[in-house]
């Protein structure tokens, strides 16, 4: 087991920048919590609107506590265990020092949790803010409201149906006489669905994370120097029946059909379980009469958008990144960069300014990720060859 000294901690400046990132994520969630405590706008409604006249049920099929466990705690535990036991791959563990392996485990764990936290916090803040802005009545509002039907005229705010029926008008929320004011207030938080956005934000992010780490994706053709000649596609010669990553013949033609393959189906099932769970949680909000269909749809879109964005914020594309997260920012660019600076990775490295201990002179890798674990060499203007790309892909896992 590696010691703390073996981890060769990066500069304090860099560590503080990522502590600040965590503080920002927590602050985003805090803003969402503040929105939740603020009373929503109460949109006027009609007492004869059948869309808000469904019965009120006190117990949800899926409570908020269950959603927190399923969409936050569960994915967090799975991400931790995945990074602990499966990152990096078996070959990297056998061929690299334990200190480097554990640094990579820690970094992948950190980015995995940061992405999950950013996805859930952002979805929570957006959803709670929109609930307050729209103030849309829930399908069971009238059951919560218990309106004062004997004095409707005192609460009329609009409508032109009085000549047909005194109840064909728009009334304000002041007409509600229900004993539980919290239930009445919550009755105006229909759009968008918080259960749906939170479930999709956490569980879809988990699906993307699992797909990345276990290479679960539709087979694709990477940009390589393999032949696309029709003869090779239709019928391979006997001398070309090697697998795509065979290295002893640099000039051999690799047929397109042999350049990729579908992952095992059990991995597809693992990836679909979180998505199916999110869909189920969203569906219960309709059958519980808590939300209209458009509320669930909008909430799901919010969760899907934040999950995808947060995953890509910290992780490489699933089909091209070999399961890795993006590396850390450079020391001098930890808190920001100026105009004209390309990106957040420079040549100064990740270690303390007065020490070159963390810097690998050959590869330029850092004390957080460790040299060579991702198969990446020093920055070069030359495009890598097809064989070098193939060798890197085989050693990453």
TrEMBL record:
Protein name from the UniProt record: PAP2 domain-containing protein
**A Pfam family matched by this chain, by name?**
PAP2
PANTHER family, alphabetically? LIPID PHOSPHATE PHOSPHATASE, PAP2 DOMAIN PROTEIN (AFU_ORTHOLOGUE AFUA_1G09730)
Q: Which residues form a coiled coil?
A: none
In the record, the note on similarity to other proteins reads: Belongs to the PA-phosphatase related phosphoesterase family.
Keywords linked to the UniProt accession: Membrane, Transmembrane, Transmembrane helix
Where is it localised?
Answer: Membrane
Signal peptide (residue range)? none
User: For this UniProt entry, which segments traverse the membrane?
Assistant: 15-35, 64-87, 107-126, 198-221, 265-282, 294-311
Q: What is its main location?
A: membrane
Alphabetical GO CC annotations of the entry are: membrane
Q: Which residues form the Phosphatidic acid phosphatase type 2/haloperoxidase domain?
A: 111-311
Report the source organism. Answer: Pseudovirgaria hyperparasitica
UniProt xrefs under SMART domains: acidPPc (SM00014)
Q: Which InterPro entries match?
A: PAP-like, PAP2/HPO, PAP2/HPO_sf
The GO biological-process annotations, alphabetized, read as: phospholipid dephosphorylation; phospholipid metabolic process
Location of the region described as Disordered in the Swiss-Prot/TrEMBL record? 348-397
């Amino acid at each position: 087991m590696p010691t703390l000294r073996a981890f060769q901690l990066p500069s304090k400046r860099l560590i503080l920048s990522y502590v600040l990132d965590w503080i920002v994520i927590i602050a985003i969630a805090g803003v969402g919590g503040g929105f939740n405590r603020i009373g929503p706008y109460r949109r006027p409604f009609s007492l004869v609107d059948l869309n808000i006249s469904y019965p009120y049920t006190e117990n949800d099929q899926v409570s908020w506590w269950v959603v927190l466990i399923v969409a936050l705690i569960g994915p967090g535990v799975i991400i931790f265990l995945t990074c602990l036991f499966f990152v990096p791959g078996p070959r990297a563990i056998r061929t690299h020092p334990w200190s480097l392996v554990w640094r990579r485990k820690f970094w992948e764990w950190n980015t995995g949790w940061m992405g999950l936290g950013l996805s859930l916090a952002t979805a929570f803040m957006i959803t709670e803010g929109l609930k307050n802005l729209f103030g849309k009545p829930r399908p069971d509002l009238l059951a919560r409201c218990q309106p004062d039907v004997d004095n409707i005229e005192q609460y009329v705010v609009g409508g032109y149906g009085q000549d047909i029926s005194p109840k064909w008008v728009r009334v304000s929320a002041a007409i509600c006489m229900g004993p539980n004011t919290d239930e009445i207030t919550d009755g105006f938080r229909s759009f968008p669905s918080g259960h749906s956005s939170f479930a999709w934000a956490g569980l879809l992010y988990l699906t993307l994370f699992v797909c990345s780490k276990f290479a679960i994706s539709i087979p694709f053709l990477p940009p390589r120097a393999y032949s696309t000649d029709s003869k090779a596609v239709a019928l391979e010669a006997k001398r070309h029946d090697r697998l795509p990553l065979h290295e002893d013949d640099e000039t051999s033609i690799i047929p397109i059909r042999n350049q990729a393959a579908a992952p095992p189906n059990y991995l597809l099932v693992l990836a679909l379980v979180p998505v199916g769970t999110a869909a189920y949680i969203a569906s219960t909000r309709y059958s519980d009469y808590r939300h209209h269909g458009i509320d669930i749809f909008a909430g799901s879109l919010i969760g899907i958008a934040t999950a995808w964005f947060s995953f890509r914020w910290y992780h490489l594309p699933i089909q091209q990144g070999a399961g890795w997260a993006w590396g850390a920012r450079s020391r001098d660019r930890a808190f920001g960069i100026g105009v004209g600076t390309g990106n957040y990775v420079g040549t100064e490295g990740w270690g303390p300014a007065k020490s070159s201990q963390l810097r690998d002179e050959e590869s330029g890798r850092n004390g957080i990720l460790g040299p060579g674990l991702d198969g990446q060499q020093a920055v070069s203007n030359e495009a890598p060859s097809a064989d070098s790309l193939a060798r890197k892909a085989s050693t990453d896992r």
